[in-house]
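A common beginner's mistake is to predict each chain separately and then try to dock the pieces by hand. The better habit, illustrated here, is to supply every component at once so that their relative placement is modeled jointly.
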Amino acid sequence: MRYVFNTSSQGETEQVGSCFSGVLVPGDVVAMYGELGAGKTAFVRGVICGLGLDVPVSSPTFSIVNEYHCPLGRVAHFDMYRISSEEELYGTGFYDYLDGKNILLMEWSENIPFAVDEDAIRVTITKGEGDDRRIEVESPRELKF
Amino acid sequence: MIVFSVDSSAVAGSAALIRDGEVVYECYAKEGLTHSETLLVRCDEVFQKTGFSPRDVDCYAVTCGPGSFTGLRIGLNLVKGMAFPGDTPCVAVSTFEALAHPAMGFGKDILCVLDARQKRVYCSAYHVETGTLVEALEGQILPIRELDGALKKAGIQDPLIVGDVADIVAGAVENGVLCEEKLRDVHAAEVGVIAYRKYLDGCSVRPDELVPVYLQLSQAERERLERTK
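With all components supplied together, the output reads:
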């Protein structure tokens, strides 16, 4: 299933993230793709807000993973920018999070194609003119927005 | 001769005290990956119930892997911390060995499987010959769909399947026999009993020499070798 959203500001991208949070269930793995400044973190900010947490959200570039304890369950926000091998990924504790209960949101999934399986929901954000963005969501199951 | 053993290699976590090779007390629970919050509490319970203190311990034992990255680090570091003040000898026990050991009495080949996530398992398989485990399939990480072929190649037949994903794997292995519930998880008591014998055999190390066996590295190396062929 494929869903496309067009936004024209960071705030709108956050709104799409918030809307997207409504379809998530515990155990979901969301692989995110998009170049620097595409709005991946803004999207995640919207997701976390949509899941009921009013907290600052930033990209875990150095910590690799940030955890958010939402009413729906634990959300692990990964930044795979500095990860390039399965060995490095294992060393982040990534596989421990895949327990069917945590929700994973993974920025820079381009770097870990070996770890994104067919059950994952893929979110690709593409830059357009100015602040315009195209957000494409591909999911193996139907999502009701 | 007191052995204090700990396991946090997977979802279950436990601590146990063994005196002269006999289990005195074990505290075991399977409530999720919260070892950082619960493992010390379990150790404390074992000491309180048995009346022993860390000063009485002659040897510490811990499962060294494979298993959960976070869990292994918690277990190993906890044991290192407890053993460090007295430079107490330590024994690292393979998670596979701790799983296979209690399954030896069934007269069957043994397949150990641990969840490596994403439809993969850490696996190893053994023949049982005159009361000892003889490794037939070397410990490795494999997609579940490749397991049956690997077992046949290794000469393993109709194995008893033990480990935390034994139920998932049972359907994918020809004539595999699912073990009973209590053989699905590692128990610190078993780790302690194995460690006791290893200690007597001179297989202990200093606390700073304890290292985890992740198995992931060898997989990466194999993939690299495949690419350069």
